[in-house]
């Protein structure tokens, strides 16, 4: 993981329209949205309001009245992995979706309009990792970062970084910055010199039941306290809290199995 943003004050950094290729939203589709809202509301202090219903029941999570994430309900007959999905900003979802196809990816849903909020598609890269595309209209995406309870970073966990990073570079125009290390396969994806996401090749360490997937990091005030809270709320610890160059990090799962990471900023 690397740092995704500049420093933010006590009230966080607010965002206008996101540059193309920037992760601009994270969304979670589950079977039990009421219980999931209760879990994340207790963990992060989120409140909820209805969002576009094009893909079924959907709410937006708010922190201090500002939008940070979305939670929707999977159709009962869809047995898909429960996972947080980052949406990457696009000025033209239809064109980006076609580029995804041409570069060996798959478009599973859309492109379609989400009421007056914007236009979306849900895609997967050549390794099978799922991500979304978002063309903003009224809804610009995550409205605040840099405070506990907000997305801090998005990272692709995959078999190896080189080929899949080239896919994202071709589709979104990222500048790649590889970490020079004999024991770490990591590429940072930059826009205008600013890191916006990462690709981490972990080979056989990938979960057998999940395969390549995107991981969302959420900022917390105290990682150890947040991990204990996750367990109290019925979640699970996948990787205990540990210190990293970017802060104290842990990987957990919510009661339905959606994996996410918690990070306490080192600053």
TrEMBL record:
CDD domains: SgaA_N_like
Signal peptide coordinates: none
InterPro entries xref list: Anthracycline_SecMetBiosynth, Glyas_Bleomycin-R_OHBP_Dase, Glyoxalase_6, VOC_core
Pfam families according to UniProt: Glyoxalase_6
PROSITE patterns per the UniProt record, alphabetical: VOC
Domain VOC: 22-136, 150-265
Protein name as it appears in the record: VOC family protein
Organism: Streptomyces ferrugineus
């Amino acid at each position: 993981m690397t740092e995704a943003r500049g420093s933010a004050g006590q009230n966080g950094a607010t965002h206008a329209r996101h540059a193309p290729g920037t992760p601009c939203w994270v969304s979670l589709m589950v079977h039990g949205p009421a219980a999931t809202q209760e879990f994340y509301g207790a963990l992060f202090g989120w409140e909820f309001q209805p969002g576009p219903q094009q893909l079924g029941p959907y709410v937006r999570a708010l922190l201090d009245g500002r939008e940070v994430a979305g939670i929707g309900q999977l159709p009962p007959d869809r047995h898909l992995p429960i996972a947080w999905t980052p949406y990457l900003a696009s000025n033209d979802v239809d064109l980006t979706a076609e580029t995804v196809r041409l570069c060996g990816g798959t478009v599973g849903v859309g492109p379609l309009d989400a009421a007056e909020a914007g236009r979306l598609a849900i895609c997967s890269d050549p390794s099978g990792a799922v991500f979304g595309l978002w063309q903003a209209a009224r809804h610009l995406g995550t409205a605040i970062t840099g405070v506990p309870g907000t997305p801090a970073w998005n990272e692709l966990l995959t078999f190896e970084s080189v080929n899949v990073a080239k896919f994202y570079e071709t589709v979104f125009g990222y500048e790649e910055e590889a970490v020079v290390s004999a024991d770490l396969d990591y590429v940072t994806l930059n826009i205008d010199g600013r890191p916006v996401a990462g690709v981490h090749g972990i080979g056989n360490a990938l979960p057998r039941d999940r395969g390549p997937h995107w991981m969302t990091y959420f900022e917390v005030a105290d990682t150890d306290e947040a991990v204990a809270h996750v367990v109290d709320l019925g979640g699970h610890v996948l990787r205990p809290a540990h210190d990293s160059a970017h802060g104290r990090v842990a990987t957990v799962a919510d009661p339905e199995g959606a994996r996410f990471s918690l990070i306490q900023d080192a600053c």
